[in-house]
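Thread: "does anyone have the structure for this chain?"

Original post by V.I.:
We have the sequence but no experimental structure in hand. Need at least a predicted one for the grant figures.
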Amino acid sequence: MNAAATALILAGSRGENDPLCAARNVSHKALIPVCGMPMVARVIGTLADSGRFSRILVAIERPELILAVPDIARRVAQREVQIVEAANSPSRSVLAALDEVAGAWPLLVTTADHPLLTREMIDYLFDEAEKDTDAVAGIVEEAVLSAAYPESKRTYLRFSDIRFSGANLFLLRTEKSAGIVAFWRTVERNRKRPLRLMSALGPVEVLRFVTGRLSLEAALRRLGRQTGARLGVVRLPFAEAAIDVDRLADLDQVERILTQGPANRK
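Reply from O.Q.:
Generated one for you, tokens below.
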């Protein structure tokens, strides 16, 4: 497999009042140990082992924090990993990384709080992405997640043809993806408010969304026209792809999965 892609891990701070960081006495969620290893180190290891990436970037405000992790420091010294400065939001961090690193396409963006990320998820996203798209997002259907982990509480977007949760996996394939990254700022502000998020598509789409008549395909077409990019999704068959670490309950669940194995493989 040719290692031609770039990966960007968003590892910035969520602010001083993150209860999860306070509970684990760390400044950044990326540094919280999961089964004895900082989350960000797990994500780096998975990306490196995938064989897909010629560059792995980590966006964080204070590089010395992750350089204190021996495995990460070794990878940086060996130029397997490059640290870039995080901006004040995920979308701005992506744009800053694109400005700093030439020829980053295709760029996989993920987050440091994704310790259940696997090579299989990465391969599936790359292999199943439609070839004529500029950007694709990995998603997990509600039925897939609830069948494997009915106790897992996630935020779902509900369309006429699908209900899904995000998977913190975004594949930006061409330069036209910059338009969707700019739209990402709206997503950041309204991640937990689906109606406000849909309002960015226009009043007709809001009405269709509220009445349950807006399909995901129609929403992607409309968003594509607004951002100048051809957009798509990949429906991941891995329930674990939708489980990131936002709460202590998530952390407990992730450690159980890593210890006992995924529910769909038992």
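V.I.: this helps a lot. The chain has a mean pLDDT of 88.
O.Q.: and The beta strands are 5-10, 33-34, 37-38, 53-60, 81-85, 107-111, 135-141, 157-158, 163-172, 231-235.
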